[in-house]
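Minutes, project check-in
Item: structure for the 209-residue chain
Input as provided by the requester:
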Amino acid sequence: ADAIRQVTVGSGDAAYVMNRDTNGMYTLVGAAEGETVDAGAANRLFNALRSLRAEKMLSEAEGGGAKFRGIAQYKAVTEGVSYLVKLGEARPDEGGTRPVQIEVTATAEATPDQQAVAAAANKKLEGWTFLIPPYVAEPFDIKKEALVKKAPPVPVAPAETQPEVAPAMAPAAAPAAAEEKVPEAVPAPALEAAPPVPEATPAEPSAEP
């Protein structure tokens, strides 16, 4: 896996690409926010591609050659060389072994020496179908959900509920003060005129001397 720099899983719109840097760190090309590559799962797939080995070659009569039908594909890119691995269905009657075909091409950045290496490898493999044992094929069955991890959703804090405030009650009106009745004025009794004072009558002089 050290020499493999990139692996493409699948084909067409469903394909996804993983890169591996010189420090062994994996990244997903075009990753959505929060998406990361599971290093352990990716490492198993990269290792399976690097150490791919077959038990035997299949003739066309055995389902190889033109009769081969691939159901999955993986493209591994090393420095200057690309390997396209096409995997067929498992054969239950043959212990779960799986047929595989490999195409080798030079990358756009390949040097002349690398182009020569790719051409020689493809000449050996072109048109041949190989049968790989189950333990070799098993890592290829890994699902995208196991390779690509999504960030867990951020919990949304529930909106703070404000306590309901009872509407303010209007203060009860103070009971009306009993109307203070002003006592009716009692007319003062009429003052009777004082009886006239009789005038004093001068005494008559006495006749006696």
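Outcome recorded: DSSP finds four helices and ten strands in the chain.
No further action items on this chain.
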